[in-house]
């Protein structure tokens, strides 16, 4: 029955030129998302709405689920699309629709008409009143409630067509990806970083990613897991350019030359440096991590300060104030959790000390890093040259 979707989006703060950028990006991202769905679709913007029309048979569930992942969409309304064959014909179609969607007629309703085409012979108010009357004639057990109706029946008179609808689904909100620059996500195989990427992407930011692995200490399966997580984030963010960095030699050098209780913090600093290198190459305006204050030794305020010191770009940590349980809930909601908890080793866990420093100080850490000075430039360049870059869709 539904051959179309009416897409509503937030309008606060998108005035003037911004509005066009916002709408054009949204239309383009909707088209992109629907490419993975069976069926052909036409996507058009018209008077503060976006209309998705299915051209022929299509996968309704698939389309709805794809639309629910497009940032910038606030509400998705499956709609009936019809031609203008006069008001009586329209009223017949709408009553037939109500009969079908609501077999139980024990509810209150209100008609809300919107007349985009000003040449339509009735005003919006006249449509509301006349349609309400027709509906009551056909279903006398219904009641009108103009203040707090159970069911709102929307009718939109458009240039060529008329759409009507009463059901709606929540979209993810946020801003269309591509309207706010791009940033580099440090993506591990854990629970946190995919959620962090999702959250920044939700604000309209395009995502690149970098993953550090340590073969042969970490396995091919661990690598595949990160690619799988990137593809889950990509369902929302669009394609992700993923840099896979071989971090083994740097980790071995740190292990060999630096105090073991400082391994993690020094390693994190090198990760940030390499991430920033690729961020600059990709035109990213910031780094993103899944850190949250106090979650582990490397995420105390002191550790964050020492890690942050190597970065020139801003580091966005959208989970900074979240408890683990809150992060897990979000991970489940975006569909990443089952993949995140697969038990494959991460490069950080392999060389971790029993008692890492929880309150590192900057000067001693810089001093320890000096012990790497004879080898680190070479290893740094080798890691960058050996990096494999793939596009994850
Ligand atoms: P996550 O669940 O995201 O792995 P975590 O609780 O394991 O987080 P850490 O291992 O301290 O925390 O990592 C903190 C952040 O550093 C991660 O959220 C991620 O952004 C980044 N990070 C950690 N390990 C890697 C890695 N191997 N490759 C890329 N980024 C990493
Ligand atoms: Mg981790």
Quaternary organization: single chain
Query: Which cofactor or ligand species appear?
Result: adenosine-5'-triphosphate, magnesium ion
Helix/strand-derived category reads alpha/beta
Quantity of strands, as a count: 15
Nearest-integer average pLDDT: 95
> Tally the helices: what do you get?
14
How far the N terminus sits from the C terminus, by CA atoms, comes to: 31 Å
**Uncertain spans:** none
Helix content: 40-55%
Radius of gyration (Å): 27 Å
Could you state the order of secondary-structure elements as H and E?
EHEEHEHEHEEEEEHEHEHHEHEHHHHHE
Q: What profile does the largest beta sheet have?
A: 9 strands, mixed
* Strand content range: 15-25%
How would you describe the overall organization of this protein?
The structure is a single chain. By secondary structure, the chain is an alpha/beta fold. The chain is 41% helix and 21% strand. The protein is built from 14 helices and 15 strands. It has helices spanning 16-34, 60-67, 87-101, 124-138, 192-201, 220-237, 248-257, 263-282, 301-308, 324-334, 337-340, 347-350, 362-370, 376-385, and strands at 4-9, 41-46, 49-54, 73-83, 108-115, 143-144, 151-157, 161-165, 169-170, 182-186, 206-213, 240-246, 287-288, 315-316, 388-392. The strands form 2 sheets. Strands 1, 2, 3, 4, 5, 6, 7, 8 and 9 form a 9-stranded mixed sheet that branches. It has a 6-stranded mixed sheet with strand order 14-13-10-11-12-15. β7 and β8 (161-165) form a beta hairpin. The radius of gyration is 27 Å and the shape is elongated.
């Amino acid at each position: 029955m539904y051959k179309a979707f009416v897409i509503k989006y937030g309008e606060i703060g998108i005035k003037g030129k911004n509005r066009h950028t916002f709408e054009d990006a949204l239309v383009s991202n909707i088209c992109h998302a629907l490419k993975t769905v069976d069926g052909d679709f036409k996507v058009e913007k018209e008077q503060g709405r976006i209309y998705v029309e299915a051209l022929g048979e299509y996968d309704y569930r698939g389309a709805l689920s794809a639309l629910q992942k497009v940032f910038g969409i606030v509400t998705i309304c499956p709609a009936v699309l019809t031609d203008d064959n006069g008001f009586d014909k329209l009223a017949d179609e709408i009553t037939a629709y109500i009969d079908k969607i609501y077999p139980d007629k024990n509810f209150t309703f209100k008609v809300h008409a919107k007349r985009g085409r000003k040449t339509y012979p009735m005003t919006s108010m006249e449509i509301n009143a006349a349609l309400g009357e027709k509906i009551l004639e056909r279903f006398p057990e219904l009641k009108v409630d103009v203040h707090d109706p159970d069911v709102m029946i929307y009718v939109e008179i458009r240039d060529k067509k008329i759409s009507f609808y009463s059901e709606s689904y929540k979209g993810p909100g946020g801003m269309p990806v591509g309207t706010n620059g791009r940033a580099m996500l440090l993506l591990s195989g854990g629970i946190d970083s995919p959620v962090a990427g999702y959250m920044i992407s939700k604000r309209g930011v395009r995502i690149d990613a970098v993953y550090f692995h340590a073969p042969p200490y970490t396995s091919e399966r661990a690598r595949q897991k990160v690619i799988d997580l990137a593809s889950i984030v990509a369902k929302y963010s669009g394609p992700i350019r993923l840099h896979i960095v071989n971090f083994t030699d740097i980790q071995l050098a740190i292990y060999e030359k630096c105090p073991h209780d400082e391994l993690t913090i020094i390693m994190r600093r090198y990760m940030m440096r390499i991430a920033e290198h690729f961020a600059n190459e990709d035109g990213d305006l910031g780094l993103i991590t899944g850190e949250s204050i106090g979650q582990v030794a490397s995420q105390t305020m002191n550790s964050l300060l020492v890690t942050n010191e190597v970065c020139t770009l801003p580091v966005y940590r959208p989970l900074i104030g979240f408890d683990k349980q809150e992060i897990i809930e979000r991970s489940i909601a975006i569909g990443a959790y089952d993949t995140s908890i697969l038990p494959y080793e991460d490069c950080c866990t392999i060389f971790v000390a029993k008692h890492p420093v929880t309150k590192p100080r900057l000067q001693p850490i810089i001093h320890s890093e000096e012990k790497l000075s004879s080898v680190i430039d070479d290893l740094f360049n080798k890691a960058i040259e050996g990096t494999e870059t793939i596009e994850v869709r």
